[in-house]
Write a structure and sequence with these properties.
InterPro entries: DUF3391, HD/PDEase_dom, HD_domain, HD_GYP_dom, HDIG_dom. This protein is α+β, with helices and mostly antiparallel strands. 43% of the residues lie in helices and 12% in strands. It has a five-stranded antiparallel beta sheet.
Length: 429
Amino acid sequence: MLKRISIQHLTLGMYLHDFCGSWMDHPFWRAKFVLKEPKDLARIKSTSIEEVWIDTSKGLDVAAGVRSVSREEADIQVETDFSLLENLPPLVVDPPPPPAPARRQSRGKAPASMHNELLAAATICGEAKQAMVSMFREARMGKAVNPENARGLVEEISDSVTRNPGALISLARLKTADDYTYMHSVAVCALMVALAKQINLNEEHTRSAGMAGLLHDLGKAAIPLAVLNKPGKLTDAEFAVVQSHPAQGYDMLKEGGAVEDAVLDACRHHHEKMDGSGYPDKLKGDQISLIARMTAICDVYDAITSDRPYKSGWDPAESLRRMAEWTKGHFDPRLFQAFVKSIGIYPVGSLVRLTSGRIGVVTEQGAQSLTSPKVKVFFSTKSGMRIPPDMVDLAVPGTTEKIVAREDPEKWKFPDLNELWSGFSGQAW
């Protein structure tokens, strides 16, 4: 039986099933093991992780009277929280400080179909990857970062998100492990723009948010690649080096000049947490700027849905559910709610099962409802066989189908899952 417990009740002999937090918050490259070593227990308790999942069928249980949460109770709570999203009033926020004057008026804003925007997004991703490779290379060589090129890139990404929010956000998630460092910045930029639009920031502040997303991880250029891409467990010293990247990036951008204060702040503080357990400055609550709180959410979402050298990405819908369990003390809860609304409860690429027993992949969000996206069904659980792909729009009046469950891609291992929703058989850029 799975139980979620406080880290203070974790003891030797328990089977650690999962951490309640991103793998960026701890030095362990895997979960799912019996805690046998006192040093491992001490390392876990020294991280910012506050809760873990244990499996009592494979290890010790908590002592009688110790509070725990079952998997079923946790799922019910998340379902309840998500069911309320559509009825929440708009989030009212104080905008970040105004950025530098806009360089040009945004263009290309006419709505686009998912198919057409995926094609355009593939081109943007290709250009963006090369731009980020160049920017990181210059930073590694100690050259000052010139944000001028980045501004045009933010405009292109913002225009794409305006035309069709799901296309570039979803496509950028398909990065390879080798591309991660560069394309992660592109994906976070797109997510930041979508979130900024969701909370009704004006156009200048939206561009500022996009710039923060694009530059937030520049400090990783100062991290040795052998550490950054290490496939195994990090040592304490290596983990400390990785955790230095927000401060390193802040210093790089500060030295180069021409980067607005809001972006500098997001770069330094995107790993801070609402309860003060983040880094590097252990800011708490409203001490963390709006733009840094936004970046924290977008950064984690893309990180946990992307393949890394040491870990496969999680399904988009599953990632949101896990993040919902971490909101206590981790993310700004209202901003996280707005984030979920911006990409959907079942983001593009999520594997789901419908009432009929057919399995499909979400291809596009519904216009009116967070629970009624477009789904391309391609497998029947009743026959256990593939079926001809069929697009089902769950928002069409009279549709009897609805999503009844998320499915784990690792269980099914459909080799063409990404191709089914994106239309690309290989790397899109």
